Records
---
Amino acid sequence: MPTEHDLSRGRILVTGGAGFIGSALIWGLNRRGLDRILVTDFLGHDEKWKNLTPLRFDDYLEADDLARRVEEERTTLEDITTVFHLGACSSTTQKDASYLIGNNFNYTKFLADWALRRGARFVYASSAATYGDGTRGMDDRDESKLAPLRPLNMYGYSKHLFDLHALRRGMLHRITGIKYFNVFGPNESHKGDMRSLVHKAYGQIVETGRVQLFKSYRPDYRDGEQKRDFLYVKDAVAMTLALAENPAATGLFNVGSGVASTWLQLTDAIFKALGKPAKVEFIEMPEELRGKYQYFTQADVAKLRDAAPTLPAASPLAESVADYVTSYLATGEYLGDESAAK
């Protein structure tokens, strides 16, 4: 087996390439001098197309057009040697289960089968949402602990279904599934309610001088001290590319910072980046979210570190937030804009 998968050989397919992590991944590839990239997405009616404007790539296809070309075994796809399948409905409040099954589960099966048939490297986005409330663990090493997981929402379940499918079919040892934790950063403005708290809080602070956070409904967590593993999108991209380059890095991988931070630590970093005093107001959580809320997430990244030992540690939270706030939110720039690229 080769010691490294060379991303520069052949063309790269990025599904969901106009989205948050997808466009950031293309930015990361461009920074390596790679632009032989086929981008697919559903552009729809929002403004995620703006994420693509500073980026370099060969061609763009709507996701339905890609599916038709794959079914017809078009020769235009023969030079694809790497597939980053990041396209999915990422709304944790989406209630149309049939839509999620078609878009997140069946489409992933379809692309994975095609990639494996032609020997392409297949890296896909799973999610930390598959872990549910975390009481059954967040283990990315032991496959026997996969089936007992109980996601809290249909989005998480649609991702979990494919993880299980890949395991049952014996595919998981040939492909790489990435369980992204709480990723934040530039190019997420189109995500509406699914934007990170950093993006939402920035707008609140600029407009009102304060931030609203949900109250805690568990006695073991005080208001604002619920914890999440927050990961800057630039670090998420570096981790994803490092895994893709290692053909032995197959199976599921937690991709996070490895550190659990409170919501108050996160908001303090935002206020500090803006040079403003911290002012937080705690509000009631909507009834429909209370039973589906994760109070603690922290990625065990030991498997990731074993697969990519030279990968730098994730950036400190305060440093990442400061970069996001000052270089992107305050300027309105996107990844790839000359003045924002570093």
---
Amino acid sequence: MNPFVSPQTLITGEGVLTEVVEQIRKFGASKAMIYADPGVVKAGLVTRLEHTLQLGEIDYELFTDVVPEPPLNIANHAVQVLRKSNADIIIGIGGGSTLDIAKACAVLSSHEGKVEDYLNLTGTKKLVHKGLPKILIPTTAGTGSEVTDIAVFSLDTTKDVITDPYLLADTAIVDYELTYSLPPRITASTGVDALTHAIEAYTSIRASELTDTLALDAIKRIGKNIRTAVWNGSDNEARKQMALGSLQAGLSFYNAGVAGVHALAYPLGGLFKIPHGESNAVLLPYVFEYIWPSCLGKMGNVAEALGLKVDHLSDREAAIKAVEELYNIVKDVGIPTTIKEFGIKESDIEQLTRDAVKQTRLLARSPKAYTEKDIRAVYGKAFEGKLKLN
């Protein structure tokens, strides 16, 4: 059995932010708590949302103390502010960190305890009800957080998550226009993040026919448009295709799961505070250098989806071409291709390995199993920056 789950309502298109008022009224809500990060505020996107709410005579409160890769103290502060308010619906607008905060707050507002009590690896409490309705509005084309039930938080040296169907959005609004002003670096990191979601979902042991269809189409859209979106940001068609690809990748990975790239990326973000998209990107080719023999046919399909000519190639040759193209994409969009470029020392690999081994939820979805030695070797190759495919 392969169940497929998505938000109850999914609204896509240019200018569809205005639909937020109707969605709020659908829930009979009278006051919204808006979660947004300072960058989204500075870009004027929150002002657009506020204007829409004011026209619809919707009361709201704004919380902007959100930071990338949010630590537990920020998350707990956000929950406490909500508990003291009289808001009866949640709106998250921004990148993945903001949407994760919004999801967690919506559910935990009516639960006892702190965020850490509900973490996947170390928490002792279970979520027992849904909490407040939530509307999630992404402003990047990458995280997929608007269609998943996962909220990621930074710990001292790694990351952990709250994951439960109660965190799933009631409504996700994907307005392509909100991504048109993204700067190149964020476009690159979130774009490769979405590509990682799609490829990991496609090769996951939990993949199904439906998730495969979404993942492959996402790979096609992102592979064709990511370089243009990064370096020619005024190309709105490329931006639109990236937003669509990100959405498809999010729906796919939510149902099929991600695996080794994310498992090894979490310690990079936790220990070195490397943004999530860049953590995934720098590891992407090296993880797939390790696993491609376990999914030859699918990697050949990935190569074709990325626009490579594979008709005359064997499955093995096509798979290798796919891994090489992943490296090329990361390099071409300006993301470092070695972890040492982020200031990581070779001696740090042991700590990274110890933390990555703990990500059993993610590692279990890989088509090729990992030992501690395997994880150490992947980090080593990512440090050296050399693919060894032949």
